[in-house]
């Protein structure tokens, strides 16, 4: 029973620290947070080959 409680505590502690870290890995640290709150993500288009 205690082992289960410890595992749950470790899981939720990791959850709390890992999710903000992963969300901050956008092109700017706040890019993914902004997209979550606004519902819109600004995507930079890379220049492709010129159409013939």
Describe this structure in words.
The protein is mainly alpha-helical and 52 residues long. The protein has helices at residues 2-23, 31-38. It is elongated.
Series of H and E elements: HH
Proportion of helical residues: 55-70%
Arithmetic mean pLDDT: 87
Radius of gyration of CA atoms, rounded to a whole number: 19 Å
Structural class: mainly alpha
Question: Oligomeric form of this entry?
Answer: single chain
Can you summarize the main beta sheet? none
Uncertain stretches of 5 or more adjacent residues: none
Say how many strands there are: 0
Question: How would the global form be characterised?
Answer: elongated
First-last Cα distance? 68 Å
Q: Helical stretch count?
A: 2
Strand content: under 5%
What is the element layout, followed by pairings?
Layout: H1 2-23, H2 31-38
In short:
It contains 2 helices and no strands. The chain has helices spanning 2-23, 31-38.
Q: Which tags fit this structure?
A:
mainly alpha, 52 residues
């Amino acid at each position: 029973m205690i082992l289960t409680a410890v595992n749950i505590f470790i899981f939720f502690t990791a959850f709390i620290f890992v999710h903000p870290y992963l969300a901050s890995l956008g092109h700017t640290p706040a890019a993914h947070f902004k997209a979550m709150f606004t519902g819109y993500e600004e995507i930079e288009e890379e220049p492709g080959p010129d159409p013939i």
